[in-house]
Amino acid sequence: MSKITKGSCLCKKISFEVHGDFENFFLCHCKHCQKDTGSAFAANLFSTTASLNWKSGENLVKAFNLPNTRHVKSFCSDCGSAVPNIQMGGKLLVVPAGSIDNNVSIKPEAHIFISSKAEWENDLDSLVKFEGLPT
After folding, report:
1. What is d(CA 41, CA 26) in angstroms, rounded to the nearest whole number?
2. Is 36 in a helix, a strand, or coil?
3. Which of 17, 25, 40, 104 is the 20 to 30 Å CA partner of 47?
4. Residues 42 and 33: beta-carbon distance below 8 Å
């Protein structure tokens, strides 16, 4: 039986299933990923063998291909959440880790494009930690 990973966007209008395994889990610090996440890095799962099945909202999926690059971002046109996309002529499935609803079966294996790492990202482990909003 194939492993099934379920996911959705923030507004829950888009939902999907991934049938199969992820081969890689990377944290990408490139400037493109910083811009499209609004954060220090993007956390993405990659598979060349799994298949993507849209359960709902496929008509709401929009994609932006950054000209002259391989950078693609797919997102919900209602809430803006990142959702999976298929790249390299259908050979590569890219799934934003934050879009997964059940447990992710693998851990990140590498930080990539660290030469572009945000300056403010240094020493984050030393910051004060709160379980929720600070009071």
Report:
1. 10
2. helix
3. 40
4. yes
* The one-letter amino acid at 108: P
Place of tokens 């299933």: 17
Bridge partners of 6, per DSSP, are 17
Q: What is the tens place of the pLDDT at every residue in 28-61? A: 999 999 999 999 999 999 999 999 999 999 999 9
Distance CA 2, CA 18 (A): 9
Which positions ≥6 away from 36 have C-beta within 8 Å?
A: 42, 64, 71, 73, 82
CA distances from 58 to 54, 66, 89, 104, 123 (A): 6, 21, 19, 22, 40
For residue 14, give its domain range: 4-116
pTM of the model as a whole: 0.90
DSSP state of 106: S
Q: Using 50, 70 and 90 to split pLDDT, how confident is the model at 125?
A: confident
Q: What is the CATH number of the domain that holds 11?
A: 2.170.150.70
Number of domains into which the chain is organized: 1
